[in-house]
Amino acid sequence: MNKSSLFKELFVNIKTTGAVTFSSKSLVNKMLSFADFKGAKIIVELGGGDGSITRGIIDRMDRDATLFVFEISEHFCRNLDRQYGSKNVKIICDSAENMDRHLNGDKVDLILSSLPFSLIPKESRTAIYEKSSVMLKPSGFFIQICYSYLLRFQFASYFSNIKTAFTLKNFPPAFIIICNS
């Protein structure tokens, strides 16, 4: 699938993608620099999109780790599965609020998200926050890309430690929220 087809999907479904373009390599690298992949066995990506973050995760994760990529766009899911689907990379065409149904009760080391929480209905957003905090190991991290600093405050009810970073090397510039218990 070519980039123009992916860009078309991005704009056709802007309410679910929540972005005007895909994450830059610089943003992906900065986001992933806050994650400790060494020894992480179960990794979850929320909002696989075009696979730019997925590629970065795969490049960094241990060979015996498993990555679960949640994406609601069937178009993006087909593309992700074609590019990355394998024994240890599971592409799941379902909402992140259903992640517990796919993880068999296993605790998660890392959750990496680019979900457009500002556009997700409150009930679904709350379910994703709750499940993420419950499913994360005590030593685990939830790392979110967003475009508003105010999103940081939504995580406060679910995570006790929250840090933020910022990068201008993306369009638009982005915040990275790093959460853990």
UniProtKB/TrEMBL annotation:
Q: Which domain of life is it from?
A: Bacteria
User: Could you tell me the Gene Ontology terms of the biological process aspect for this record?
Assistant: methylation
List keywords of the entry alphabetically: Methyltransferase, Transferase
Q: Which GO terms describe its molecular function?
A: methyltransferase activity
Residue stretches making up the Methyltransferase domain: 43-140
User: According to its UniProt record, what is one Pfam family this protein matches?
Assistant: Methyltransf_25
Which InterPro entries did the record assign? Methyltransf_25, SAM-dependent_MTases_sf
Q: Do you know which Gene3D superfamilies this protein is assigned to?
A: Vaccinia Virus protein VP39 (3.40.50.150)
State the protein's name: Phospholipid N-methyltransferase
Species source reads: Cyclobacterium lianum
